[in-house]
Amino acid sequence: MNILPGTPFDCAVDGDKLKEECGIFGVTGVHDASNFVALGLHALQHRGQEAGGIVCHDPIQGFNSARRFGYVRDNFTRADVMKGLPGPIAIGHVRYSTAGSKGATAIRDVQPFFGEFSMGGCAVAHNGNLTNAAALRRELIERGSIFQSSSDSECIIHLMARSIQTTLAERLKDALRRVEGAFSVIAMTRTKLIGVRDPMGVRPLVLGRIGEGWALSSETCGLDIIGAEFVREIEPGEMVIIENGHLKSHRPFAPAPSRFCIFEHVYFSRPDSSYGGRSVYEVRRNIGIELAKEAPVEADLVCPVPDSGTPAAIGFSQQSGIPFALGITRNQYVGRTFIEPTEQIRNMGVRLKLNVNRSLIKGKRVVLVDDSVVRGTTSRKIKDMILDAGAAEVHFRIASPPTAWPCFYGVDTPERSKLLAATMSEDEMRDWIGVDSLRFISLDGLYRAAGEADGRNPEAPRYCDACFSGDYPIAPADKLKEGFEMKEPAE
Amino acid sequence: MNILPGTPFDCAVDGDKLKEECGIFGVTGVHDASNFVALGLHALQHRGQEAGGIVCHDPIQGFNSARRFGYVRDNFTRADVMKGLPGPIAIGHVRYSTAGSKGATAIRDVQPFFGEFSMGGCAVAHNGNLTNAAALRRELIERGSIFQSSSDSECIIHLMARSIQTTLAERLKDALRRVEGAFSVIAMTRTKLIGVRDPMGVRPLVLGRIGEGWALSSETCGLDIIGAEFVREIEPGEMVIIENGHLKSHRPFAPAPSRFCIFEHVYFSRPDSSYGGRSVYEVRRNIGIELAKEAPVEADLVCPVPDSGTPAAIGFSQQSGIPFALGITRNQYVGRTFIEPTEQIRNMGVRLKLNVNRSLIKGKRVVLVDDSVVRGTTSRKIKDMILDAGAAEVHFRIASPPTAWPCFYGVDTPERSKLLAATMSEDEMRDWIGVDSLRFISLDGLYRAAGEADGRNPEAPRYCDACFSGDYPIAPADKLKEGFEMKEPAE
Amino acid sequence: MNILPGTPFDCAVDGDKLKEECGIFGVTGVHDASNFVALGLHALQHRGQEAGGIVCHDPIQGFNSARRFGYVRDNFTRADVMKGLPGPIAIGHVRYSTAGSKGATAIRDVQPFFGEFSMGGCAVAHNGNLTNAAALRRELIERGSIFQSSSDSECIIHLMARSIQTTLAERLKDALRRVEGAFSVIAMTRTKLIGVRDPMGVRPLVLGRIGEGWALSSETCGLDIIGAEFVREIEPGEMVIIENGHLKSHRPFAPAPSRFCIFEHVYFSRPDSSYGGRSVYEVRRNIGIELAKEAPVEADLVCPVPDSGTPAAIGFSQQSGIPFALGITRNQYVGRTFIEPTEQIRNMGVRLKLNVNRSLIKGKRVVLVDDSVVRGTTSRKIKDMILDAGAAEVHFRIASPPTAWPCFYGVDTPERSKLLAATMSEDEMRDWIGVDSLRFISLDGLYRAAGEADGRNPEAPRYCDACFSGDYPIAPADKLKEGFEMKEPAE
Amino acid sequence: MNILPGTPFDCAVDGDKLKEECGIFGVTGVHDASNFVALGLHALQHRGQEAGGIVCHDPIQGFNSARRFGYVRDNFTRADVMKGLPGPIAIGHVRYSTAGSKGATAIRDVQPFFGEFSMGGCAVAHNGNLTNAAALRRELIERGSIFQSSSDSECIIHLMARSIQTTLAERLKDALRRVEGAFSVIAMTRTKLIGVRDPMGVRPLVLGRIGEGWALSSETCGLDIIGAEFVREIEPGEMVIIENGHLKSHRPFAPAPSRFCIFEHVYFSRPDSSYGGRSVYEVRRNIGIELAKEAPVEADLVCPVPDSGTPAAIGFSQQSGIPFALGITRNQYVGRTFIEPTEQIRNMGVRLKLNVNRSLIKGKRVVLVDDSVVRGTTSRKIKDMILDAGAAEVHFRIASPPTAWPCFYGVDTPERSKLLAATMSEDEMRDWIGVDSLRFISLDGLYRAAGEADGRNPEAPRYCDACFSGDYPIAPADKLKEGFEMKEPAE
């Protein structure tokens, strides 16, 4: 049979696609909580565009839910959808659009997941990735569980169903003690809103107050949009249970060193979100400053690759004194792929999205600042466009170290062999892309930009930087069983 | 909480709606089996119009499925749907449109259900109703099962998951020995097509051959459309397992008297389907003949209430000598409800569907033949229309006995208090409807029409006629627990 | 250029498709007139299934309109559509689904057409076909008119725009005096509802009263559904103008002999509609009686080809004494075409729609009664199905004379060479279809059934029967120019 | 009647909505020209988001067209749409989404318009606004033209239909000589691609070469996306006719001074488009530089109001030395309006779209640079957000002079009384918005930024700046008739 045991039959999901980045949001103690969740998910839309779901509870109408493909704005703004989601407590989830077609995901894969237990219903929204999900799934199926989705997150519900604890919160603790990996979870019962981060705190989760109510969000920008006041981050390994307006903090897991995902700073989070009192925008600008120190160059213009390279480009310009300019314009209406008219047009894909300001660029030495290089194919096309427009020189500066290792903690990355930096040195990459110079920020520089004045402490790094370093803080159990080879410890 | 333990949260399904009539179809040993299943389901569309589903298996592409709301013809004719359903074995299901809105059913309620077990996948399509499903569901949830649909049929999959048998067929036997009620089931594994009828054979299931392959269908009309040859009916209590082109018959249940649903003859089955070598059309025509003997009347025209009263009206006309005429025309484009323009129009609902041929009816004494009277409200409206058109007399003749009891075996009936015949005598009904005469066929007459020359044997009736007699061959366990009162045995 | 001058550019409509049958309806003097029009069009849906449109006028909100592809029930039942159609006067149109794909018709071809004139707006709905439309169109374009649709009916609006009359009603008279062909027209201005039939009255149009208001409808069944009382038919060559609750009758055309389309009786009108005080059902039953007299046969069963052959089959049975039976069942869910599974299945198309009642037919001599034979291909397939089911003999009886000539007056017929009866004698057709006998009713028999006791008067036939006789009462000017050859007068 | 003579009936379009900004594109001499047009329109999508249309011609398949609501990327990327648009010549149009609902526009209002004339078909796409359209429309209707859309641009087609010229190009000249106002037009016949600008060249139109073919586009970014080489701008008052690969230039109008719309520089055109060899981005950056000179301020950060204020903010920062920062983040997923959860949330609308980077802004003196102030309501909300985030001071700098007059030449502006600058002085506006300072660039400063070293020459201004100055280069004839009052000449 061509599908793994436990993989649902109408999803042709390959291994990669199960690792997705997501956004989660929950609120309690407000009227029409689902409307707040819709707003929060809208603010978190950059974390997942494929689909979204909301579960809510009302004392009269019980649990209700809606799951939809597409943007939050197109679904959870409709009166017919929202009037079916009443009550003072609600949680929601947005899901990343993986490389495959929408058809590859069944609507039943869209979170939050819901389970009906003898003591009542419970909904769970998960951001992250479980590294022992395949093994757990096999075990659960052996013992009689029927999986309905292809999502590893469904394990949590089935583990709860097997727990002998008598409250849902205790059952959730039981379940999460069995899973390994990176997770931020928002759960709800009829009366409780629950937030949890894994022991290392790989994925973010923040807490806010809105009037007498409370909100949980992947990022602070979700609090801003609903007018909630930021209280604090949920701590690594912490579970907060909010009931009747009161919050209690629990510590269900063994202590572990904190390892927040540094890629949230580099690319994933919105620039107006903050962690540790520092906005992501500022970290990115700092990266640009560090980069200008580490890899200076003589040039006429600093141009960001829109839009994610902009803050680092501003920092690079400010440090280097080279004028900042919007040399590449992004078409905000990019969507489906056009039918290529003829072979007359090269680089169609990138032209649909980006255009070079020819009269600005012509004859100039240009520094292009981008956030990262994954496969490198887009970098080549951008270089072509810039040269076509008559640039005299092109210098790439990358606001992250070389991405040489896949992420197993909730970010969708190609397998290792597809990562340009896994197979080439920096000079080889420069030649392959075809630019005058190419420099990545160092790992230490990145840590400095993120506030670690001394750079990365190899004994106890403050962040998870496995995608750059190959240093995986949580063993990827399922992947090792499939044959993934970790970096040699001596390396 | 306002939903029962185990009821999924986004379905507001009341108790009634769980009892639905359905159609099931399966085929193996042919190329592109799903196309045959689509055709078979199209022929069975009268058994369920709300939604349909197909699961199939292909040696290369494994299990695939599609579930859609709406008619078979609108979904399972599309190349984009069907190309995703490859392979030589497939089963399907059509589901009845219950009174509520489509929104009341989640797509996850649409069968066939599928479970991934350690020994492989299995899909199950169920026609009928399980009378102990609520109790089973509670027990399964206690033991850690997570239900994903509101359908009682899902119990079968979870019971299979709990079985200690090592083959799927044996697990299915285990599961079906635990359920009570009426069921015909078509199931499939990677290589086996399985058909089962409950011990009393309440719901139909027939077997056909197509080339070297085999087909299972609720009715013979499903075999006709694919050009399959009718072989025989699956017997009550029989399980057939077809693998590698060979059929084996099993008897997993204790023997029980056969009690085929007599309402399949009266209304539910298509007139061109046959049971016991006799077409449903002929039984219905015989009912008309018996009715003309039991309840003769002087009149000018015999008119059917379209379309289901037509065969009995033909029989009534042939026996009585009163000319048969199409006095009421049915609009074949009936669909959504129109916005009522003003109160000027009475009886809008029925006018959208039916119109009286005024010049034909005017001044005539008319016998109207209908298949059944449930709430009686439609009968009143039809009587109004006939009188408005100038009929001199209106005589109703009903091709079934008074429907005085709800069905718990898979036909959607209102609760007992809503059934006109549960609260009124025949004369009271006549007066309430407002016609010159009203007569129902006797239970004995109905049995004679169905081939029992001596009428109904009260000691061992050949059919399930609980909706007419209150004689329930299978105790409705869940309903009794909810407070349903059976007929006094002495009555 | 591959499209004729004047043919709009996004319609690839060939000549045939311009000749379509339609249904028209109008009402004035009621609240929310559009709701009545929606109901009337629903009752007339059999006259056109491709698309529908409504134009209405409200003193405050002015003219409004909606045009939609698909059934009336799916579009003009929606609150969002209907609330945009306010006011006490409205007219509507349903359009026939011609052989081509829906894409072949632009929404701008959907009537009623609307023109804004210096004295106000006017909407026009047309049933029929103009035989000099191509010539008129060329002339109008020469003079500066811009056509926006592919419909010949648009000529009427442009002719009105060119008229020097000062009222819209007079301009409509001017326009209709310029056109040739068959037409029933319903038009409206802000205050007037207007109904017109062409001088020969080829297409139907009836008048009804609803409270203090008035209604116009293609058929009486449209009056029935809204509860309107039938008043009379609009007479050939008559124009009625209804304003402020009063009706005035005009005679804008030179007198001409009445030639109502006899095919309305044979097939097109609904059986519960009436013309001349006689229901279409009764005429069809009479045809069956005449047919049994003209072409008797020894047989066991008379079966209609559903559904249109049913009334004639009833008449045939009653006259011949051979029992009437529903030997062929029609699947009411027919829609899109299924993907043919394999070549194992012959006659797929007809099986999707029709199934033979095998146990009823087996070993019987069967008379099949159908309404007409056009290309003959369907007749062959039905014969195959009946023989496959084991019939001993098959005798076809056709409720119309051989269809040997195309219609140019609003019925969509294939070109002459495609009509079976244009190329074969009755015996040749019998052999080609492959039945034991085949007989058509005579033209005289048809006239007798329609109430002409002496049959057809060749000097002054009461009906248009050009499709049977080749006797075209109105010269098809455009077609003659294209090379169509009329029957030799001597023939 | 509530609609003006000549206004089509299913559009409730008020006067304002007829003035819309659009984008036009055409190409000839390439395979599958429509695919190029789709790309060009995609690049011009910022000029009109409501709907788009393409007309093309193929020697075999003749004229074809498609019109769709929504983005180019969602419609003209679909194979089923594009395969219906074959041939080597095509033109297209995108239409601005006016304030009303989509329902307010009928699909028949979507350009290009098409007319079938005796010498063949002609399609016309128009960007701009005709100031005498209402008068022309009335005259044409009097003479027998039937208007099918609410668009004034349709006049062009009807004027062509009335012309006595024998070629389509000459008829187009005739028609355009009759219209007044601002227009750039792209037209096509079977073989000719035609581009025209009005005598003053108010709206842009540029010419490019692609291989052996030619392209016409509203802006140069439309040439870039298809890989065409920019040749030159079409000159004010010029008509170019391209046929068989050759271009001929005509001068059909009386000479007039050039008055290009200066608002194209300020806001409307894409920053990567160029006019007169200078990119729009550079003009906008220059505006920021001029603004920093004219209205300096002590502050900590210069932040753009995203996205259109960005280039001017960069210029302001570079001139002033105050650091540039992205203090406001724009949510790129803005779409439908959310249901407001409760009154707890103020400024919901702007929060859906914009969020302040709190940790960046807190305690800072902020200069906000925006492109323009129309009603001023958004400016107030942005000020609230910035202050809520803890800014110490807020200074608005506006990259255009006060918008005090409506545009009648193709830009959708509110009526004069709704324009903040029409009723308040700069100081009053500052107080009403509630900021520490508010300064607009001067008209002279704007001219300097656009390359006029000496500022605006009041005797012969190089641009149309009516929205700022009230100096209307073309008399708005229809508006004057409706009562619009021009600025006093002495003022």
Instruction: Name the structural class of chain A.
Output: alpha+beta
Give the assembly state of these chains. Answer: homotetramer
Number of domains of chain A: 2
Largest interface: B-C, 72 and 72 residues
- Compute the average pLDDT of chain A: 90
Question: Which tags fit this structure?
Answer:
491 residues, globular, 2 domains, six-stranded antiparallel beta sheet, disordered N terminus, homotetramer, Glutamine Phosphoribosylpyrophosphate, subunit 1, domain 1, seven-stranded antiparallel beta sheet, Rossmann fold, alpha+beta
Task: Describe the protein in words.
- Four copies of one chain form a homotetramer.
- The first copy, chain A, has a seven-stranded antiparallel β-sheet.
- In chain A, helix 9 (280-294) packs across helix 10 (310-320) and helix 9 packs across helix 16 (443-449).
- Helices cover 28% and strands 24% of the residues of chain A.
- The relative contact order of chain A is 0.11.
- Chain A folds into two domains: 15-259, Glutamine Phosphoribosylpyrophosphate, subunit 1, domain 1; 280-332 and 348-459, 3-Layer(aba) Sandwich (Rossmann fold).
- In chain A, a hairpin with a 2-residue loop joins strand 12 (239-243) and strand 13 (246-250).
- The first copy, chain A, is α+β, with helices and mostly antiparallel strands and 491 residues long.
- Residues 1-19 and 98-104 of chain A have low confidence and may be disordered.
- Chains in contact: A-B, A-D, B-C, C-D.
- Chain C binds chain D through residues 1-3, 5-10, 55, 60-66, 84, 103, 107-108, 114-118, 120-121, 123, 138, 141-148, 157-158, 161-162, 190, and chain D through 1-3, 5-10, 55, 60-66, 84, 103, 107-108, 114-118, 120-121, 138, 141-148, 157-158, 161-162, 190.
